[in-house]
Amino acid sequence: GALWYVLPEEINDWEDIHLTPEEQAMGAANALPIDTKKVVVQTGCSTFIMELEKRNFEVIELDYSTIWDITGSGIHCSVMHLWREFD
Q1: For 1-87, where are the E strands, in sequence order?
Q2: Residue pair 57/41 in contact by the 8 Å Cβ criterion
């Protein structure tokens, strides 16, 4: 209900993971997926990490709080685009 537009059909069946306001403020939404089942996440986002692990993601925790606090830029914003090849 928060979107102003209709999502493309290709992602309509995607599952939402709701973040707590605290984890949002820590930069949890700025995680970095590095393949189909592995994601780098800000350390301390335990609810988000638990939700990812329930969905069989391998979570790599990284303390990025200093950069986040100084710049407001998180893990995903700090990397170049990745070329991913999936089987």
Answers
A1: 32-35, 38-42, 58-62
A2: no
